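Table S2 (continued). Query chain:
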Amino acid sequence: MNKIYKNVIGILSLSVVLVACKKDKEEEEVMCIPDNGHVTQFYSSVGSTTTPSFTEIAGAGNQVNSPQDLDFHPSSSRQNELWILNKGVQNTGSSTVTISNAGKTGQSSVWRRDGNAWHFMSLSTALAFSSENENFATSPGVYDANHNGGAPFTGPALWSSNMSIYAQPSGGNGSHLDMLHESPYCMGIAHERDNIFWVFDGDASQIVKYDFKSDHGPGNSNHDDGEVDRYIGISVTRKVNVPSHMVIDKNTDWLYICDTGGKRILRMKVNSGTKKRDLPLLYEVLGRRREMENPVWEVFANTDLVDPCGIDVIGNRLFVSDNSTNKIIAYRLDTKEELARIQTTATSIKGIKVGPEGKLWYVDYSANKVMRVDPI
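Corresponding output:
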């Protein structure tokens, strides 16, 4: 039986307020997220248990529809701007809801779907922002055999968050900035730096590094400078209809992976390992395609997990959502110790995110809601 709370005294004794900072390269400012919420969101009084409260931030009235993931814009000039990724259907593609002043007075929302989302953002499972620019990337969760004579022609796509560009008419290929086409059933995505993203390739059961390099501009199609590194020696398992989200702890360079089908959390040192061989090109001209071996990786957690799905990290805490139990689990990064679990009000929890004020946010896929966890 899962324990709702563990090591209560240890959690209560954490009185130091940690701060995680993200530097906005363009703005030359530092955006700091207080970590104090991570203590009070998982606590109980001695002798009794207490759960946080849950606040609905957006729902169907904001055109939130089968949400898969969420992320906050990293720029300090766009703080509290929350992006939600709706799954959509394959023939029209996924969509986004952008909420300004999320959870605050004057909150407003904008729904958008790119005209070519049927290919570049089809059944997308996850999104992640670049912390160095205004770009974000999505991971289409389809096989997409409608191109290249039945070949699986899909993979991560790069977008601008500039609202004068994103999902605005821009030629024959919509507004996407770039796409690399060799990860069908792409179940999760995490940002490293610049235009470099790591994905969960559910078709090959591999972790793959994609470097878009310089984007080709809205609606264009030149991918010649793209670089792809496929890692062997670490294997992951896709579960149909459940995203496998990932996140990079940029303080340590550990990539944390929800291996959903394996019922476990893995972590891998990004850019570890060595080149085994160059790989032949598949469907497009690229700058590089390699197979990498012997990455540094380990199992971080594999106890009492059913369908680990959402994941985020801050300070010395890792948070994981379980799509089967609708719980959020907190871990210590240094010791891998499970600290606590809370039962959310979700009916199908998926992506989770630490917000600008140190509180947890999550999407409820089947209830079409965005929720915030508020300490009592």
